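Allow me, if you will, to draw on your knowledge of protein folds for a short while. A protein sequence and the structure tokens that stand for its backbone fold form the material at issue. I would ask you to consider whether the tokens describe a fold that such a sequence might reasonably adopt. Thank you for your consideration; the sequence and its tokens are set out here:
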Amino acid sequence: MLSVIVPVYNEEENLEEFHRRLLEVCSLLKEEYEIIYVDDGSNDKSIEIIKNFVESNSHTLYISLYRNFGQHASVMAGFSQAQGNIIMTLDADLQNPPEEIPKFIEKSNSGFDVIAGRRINRKDSISRKILSNFMNKIISFMTGVKLHDYGCMMRLYSRPIIDQLLKFGEKSVYIPAFTTWLSKKTLEIDINHDKRQKGKTKYSLLKLMRQAFDLITAYTLVPIQLIGLFGFFLFLLGIFLFFYLMYFRIFVGSPSSLTSFIAILIFLSGSILFALGIISEYLVRLYKEVRKMPLYVIRESSFDLNDKRNSK
């Protein structure tokens, strides 16, 4: 059985066409399927449209969250309810065409645990593509998880991988990296990428950078180790500058010693603040794990919540 998890946030303009195309694709598959829409606190008519889908099609289910918890939380909510032995995630903005789903199903029959989409001929802005490419290389290097496209939402997972994710995944887990790290049976396949026709993207450059920074601090100690090396370098540099300025002031004389001192002070202060920022990221991750705030809370759904979890 195939479960398709579709996180939704303010996609009223795309949902009708998306659902029609998704049903057409799924109806041609040789196995049972379910479509699970997870409304992430939309403030447009998305949830009303989704409820209409559920009423008109027995394969369609929905989860509605109390507020906007974020895409990660929405996907995890969908995973917790999915019944399929293979599970796909897919955005509702139609940039990743539902017609690509058979490619993933075909490859899943070869025994892969994780099949990740790699967008070719991306229809995004130049600045976003450059930043995305740069971040992908940095993340692959620092985490050791070799993927070319971390930002592609179109992915397929085997049931055992999702079970392990639900069992061991921390609240700050980054799903693509964690699931790829879990299994060596991972494949990346090329998929088409279309331009968004309606609505606005929910991923600003700031959010993409925030996501990349979360990923790096979640799966590697390299940043905090680099801070230690950088701090040691600054320590040696500070000693050198101290003796240099003392020598310069005592034996040579300088009318601008205060200027040099201020410049050095600003440099060192900035370095310390930067280091504290990275250390704080690790502390925040610990804080998120120990506090009792749920990853998501379900307002309503078409599932029987007496037998399912409504929060995590």
The chain has two domains: 2-204+295-301, 222-290. The longest strand covers residues 2-8.
